[in-house]
Amino acid sequence: MANFDESLKIVLAHEGGFVDNPDDHGGPTNFGLTLADLSCLGLNSTTMVLKNLSQDQVSAIYRKLFWEPLQGDLIVSQKVADLLFDQGVLNGIGTVVRFVQRIVGVPADGILGPQTLGKINTTSATRIEALFVAAELRRYVQIAGSNPSQMQFLRGWVNRSADLLERMFS
C-alpha cells in the first residue's frame, strides 16, 4: 500500500515556502497550504500562523485534508497515490477524483468510494498516470487561455506534471 511520507516528500518538493502572489486564486500559501486549509481544521487562519507552520503541522494538515479523503493508505500503487495526492493539493480533491474516475470508467461524482478505489487498484498505474497528466495539461492550458493572469503559473503546472510523469517511468 502507498506510503504517506513518501508522497508528502513529492508534494513538498513541488510546493515552496511562503508566497503571497495577488494573482494566485488560493491566496497566500506556505508549503502549498492556504488560509482556507487552516480554517478547515479550526486553526487560527491568519497569515502569521500560515507563515509559522511547523513541519508536524504541515504533515498533519496534508494527511487530514488531502491524503485521508483520497484514501491514500488503500491505494496499491505508490506512484498513483503520489499523483493523486500531489494533484489533489494543486487542483482540489473533487477535481482529481473526477479525473481519475473518468480514466478508470466509473461515474465521475468526485467521491472516492469503494468502486473507484477498486478500479484505481486494478487499472494499470501507467495508464492512469498518462491519461491523467494529459487531461491536466489540457486543463492548465484552458485556465491560462481563459484568464491571462494565470499564464504566469502555466510553466510551473506543466513542470510539475512532467516531474510526475518522469517519476512514473523511472
Question: Total strand count, please?
Answer: 2
CATH H level: which superfamily? Chitosanase, subunit A, domain 1
| CATH fold-type name | Chitosanase, subunit A, domain 1
Rounded Rg: 16 Å
Helix content: 55-70%
Contiguous uncertain segments of 5+ residues: none
Description:
With 170 residues, the chain is mainly α. The chain has one domain (4-168): Up-down Bundle (Chitosanase, subunit A, domain 1). Helices cover 65% and strands 2% of the residues. It has 9 helices and 2 strands, in the order H-E-E-H-H-H-H-H-H-H-H. It has helices spanning 4-14, 35-40, 47-51, 55-67, 78-91, 93-104, 114-122, 125-146, 151-168, and strands at residues 29-30, 33-34. Strands 1-2 form a two-stranded antiparallel ribbon. A hairpin with a 2-residue loop joins strand 1 and strand 2 (33-34). It is globular, with a radius of gyration of 16 Å.
List the defining traits of the structure above.
170 residues, mainly alpha, Chitosanase, subunit A, domain 1, two-stranded antiparallel ribbon, globular
